[in-house]
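Quiz preparation item.
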């Protein structure tokens, strides 16, 4: 019985994975180029789906251009493009690839063109998610950011 219980718990933990949970952005630790950073951070809810993630980001404050944003998408770790709902209209698809036990790569596109590539890393203690992003904004400017999140 103990072995079955242990294996069941291990399987449940493995299904959940290190990314799953609610994450609140820590603006004091986040960096944006070009700046300035938003006035307040966003909240990202990550849910497990078989071999992938469902990600909902809400409460995004307006950016430097005064545009508010929220996104929702589900993608699988197969590198294929999946539809993204993005209220800013900057992206329309996203893909995922797992690159390690606590890391993944997400690629966001608009009309088939790569607009942003981000690497997500969860700390060894599972309390911090860091998303390092590089890409191009709607005006064609190079952008990069390091967004740090605390698990709630």
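Solution:
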């Amino acid at each position: 019985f103990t072995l079955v219980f242990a294996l069941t718990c291990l399987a449940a933990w493995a299904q959940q994975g290190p990314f799953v949970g609610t994450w609140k952005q820590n603006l004091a630790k986040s960096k944006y180029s070009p700046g300035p950073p938003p006035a307040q951070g966003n909240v990202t809810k990550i849910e497990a789906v078989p071999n992938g993630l469902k990600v909902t980001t809400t409460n995004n404050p307006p950016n430097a251009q005064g545009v508010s944003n929220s996104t929702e998408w589900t993608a699988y770790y197969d590198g294929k493009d999946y539809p993204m709902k993005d209220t800013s209209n900057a992206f329309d698809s996203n893909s995922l690839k797992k690159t390690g036990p606590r890391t993944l790569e997400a690629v966001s596109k608009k009309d088939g063109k790569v607009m942003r590539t981000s690497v997500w890393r969860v700390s060894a203690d599972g309390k911090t998610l860091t998303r390092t992003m590089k890409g191009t904004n709607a005006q064609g400017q190079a952008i990069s950011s390091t967004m740090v999140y605390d698990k709630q």
